[in-house]
């Protein structure tokens, strides 16, 4: 009697199938970790860009205030000190020797930042409180560690105003002769 039954090995297909499943799981895990690392890098870069833009805005606000203060000290008797803001342009701040260029493609905290002036609103009435509202826009751009470009834009409106002195809150004043005057 001859044995005509076929004998096949089942170990090799089982091992190959197990290796295939383990390879798919390992590949998926590696892809998941790499993608998570890229996304984390983009979020970290976005935070860096946001902080760089805010830093640039704060620098520009301080420079504008410093230049305006220098102008006010240089011309203290000017009736309309806020006229200094009338000469604002997109690339320059102030007038005359008090001009201060806005940031243009400077590096702040590792990001390239540009600050521009988008709007100037000034009070026109002499009787009401005088103010100048400047709208500044900071754009920061940087590349994430994976090379993905990230850009953040922050826009702020800053009001510079001439407020009435608190000495005028009182009803009476003593003049040069020591008399109470006023109403």
Give an overview in words.
This protein has 1 helix and 8 strands; from the N terminus they run αββββββββ. The protein has one helix spanning 11-74; strands spanning 92-93, 100-101, 106-108, 111-122, 130-143, 149-162, 173-174, 180-181. The strands form 3 sheets. Strands 3-4-5-6 form a 4-stranded antiparallel beta sheet. The chain is rod-shaped, with a radius of gyration of 34 Å.
Q: Output the radius of gyration.
A: 34 Å
Number of strands: 8
Helix and strand content put the structural class at alpha+beta
Q: How many alpha or pi helices? A: 1
Spans of at least 5 consecutive residues whose pLDDT stays below 50 are 88-92, 94-99
- Residues in β-strands, percent: 25-35%
* Overall 3D shape: rod-shaped
Largest sheet: 4 strands, antiparallel
Q: What is the residue-mean pLDDT, rounded to a whole number?
A: 78
Strands of the widest sheet, in order across it, are 3-4-5-6
Helix content: 25-40%
Task: Spell out the helices and strands N to C.
Answer: HEEEEEEEE
For the record, give the distance between the C-alpha atoms at the N and C termini, rounded to a whole number.
135 Å
